[in-house]
Write a structure and sequence with these properties.
The chain is mainly alpha-helical and about 160 residues long. The protein contains 1 helix and no strands.
Length: about 160
């Protein structure tokens, strides 16, 4: 019994030592698990903070870009309205100038026709005058020829 008791005590000591080693290993594993969990929680929180910060930056950028887009659209609309007004004003000015040009053309046409009518009247008057002068001269020559006894129709 003594040997067996001593053997049992030795086995008991070995088992206690082994149990104590396993408990220490378990405690170390639990501590490692806790450390890993804390590290992962810290990293997760840090990642959440970074993601939130990035999200806020992106939202601010989107808002800024939307405001810029709205401003550019408004400027574009104003530019388009201004261009439309300027084109309408140009078209009105062209129409007014075309009307003035047509009126001037009609006026010049009247002046030209009036001048031509005056020239034609003067030419007709001059033609009639010269016709009369020519007839008078022809009559005088005819009389002179008859005085000399010549027939003007034969000459």
């Amino acid at each position: 019994w003594r040997d067996m008791t001593w053997q049992a005590k030795a086995d008991n000591e070995v088992l206690k030592r082994r149990l104590w080693d396993l408990q220490k290993a378990l405690e170390q594993a639990q501590e490692d698990k806790r450390d890993i969990h804390e590290e992962m929680t810290r990293q997760y929180q840090q990642l959440q903070k970074q993601t939130a910060a990035q999200s806020q930056r992106l939202e601010a950028k989107v808002k800024s870009l939307q405001e810029q887009l709205a401003t550019k659209l408004q400027e574009s609309q104003q530019t388009q309205e201004t261009a439309t007004q300027e084109l309408a004003e140009r078209d009105r000015t062209i129409a007014q100038l075309q009307d003035r040009l047509n009126a001037m053309e009609r006026e010049y046409e009247k002046i030209l026709h009036g001048s031509l009518d005056l020239v034609l009247a003067k030419m007709a008057e001059a033609s009639q005058h010269w016709e009369e002068v020519g007839t008078t001269i022809a009559m005088e020559h005819k009389e002179h020829l008859q005085e000399f006894g010549l027939n003007p129709l034969e000459i």
